[in-house]
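FORM 7B: Structural annotation worksheet

SECTION A. Query
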Amino acid sequence: MKRSTFSRVLLAAAAAALLPLAAQAQATRLTLGHGAAPGNPRHEASLRFAELVKAKTAGRIEVQVAPSAQLGDDAAMVTALRTGALDLSANSQGAVATTVPEYAAYGMPFLFSTPAQAFKLLDGALGKELADKSADKGLVVLGYWDNGIRHMTNGKRPIAKVEDLKGLKMRTPPDAVLVDIMQALGAEAQQIKFAELYVALQQGVVDGQENPLMNIHASKLYEVQKHLALTSHMFQMTPLLVSKRTWDRLAEADRQALRAAADEATALQRRLSQEADDKLLADLKAKGVQVTTIDKSAFARATARVEDKWVAGPTGPYVKKVIAAARSH
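SECTION B. Predicted structure
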């Protein structure tokens, strides 16, 4: 009896010792990379997504968030997603469009005056079609986040009319539509990684750049740029993506948990972005940034050929549908 009791106690102790190891073995750790700075709505929503995933999976899945392009720029992270080297990314419209060119449709010049107009399309059939095209390229869409309506800054002169851009060296992200827009306006487009942009502006490598107000503010670009023109020349989204290779390894219950967490994080990110835009303009003015407005009709006329080019291109049918839907609202 004693030996039997001792054996049972020993087995129970061994089983108890193994429990943490078993739990650890079952936990799945995923990495979410993005290029924005802490404080940016993209980062805050990523952190909330990680919290929600952990709660909804009872700790089975833990998401580690890597901000500020720690894992490479957006283009590098798209490649890593497709190979399975990275699990998740809150990425950028331009970088993803290199792989799924239909994303460029949402960046046609002066197509949306507010992000809400774009999300009416993205949350419907056109967004579903885009998600299907993404999945074909190894990218599973969990949500479309807001990267804002974009405006231009520079350190040389105020921008009020198209001629003011002539000859300015303007940084763009890896976004073919933005390059087309800058060239149509007479500026010289130069691609520089966002993480290197502050120093490039400070040292005069480029004269200016364009971004939504939240990016300009969070990365303190106002410290090296005196002039802000409220051009509203382009909308950009931030697709929240998971690698299809990672997705295919997850159980269905965990996929549902990720989708539910993404829905909540998407609503938060869009709200934070809107709130940021509402208050940041006043703050930028208080920091000494000189703000100008533009004649949008003149800028739209100058960039009309950009839309013509993309409508005539390989993704023309999808671009046409997006333009038609945007203008019908």
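SECTION C. Observations
The chain has one domain: 19-95+104-328. Confidence is low (pLDDT under 50) at residues 9-24.

SECTION D. Sign-off
Analyst initials: ____
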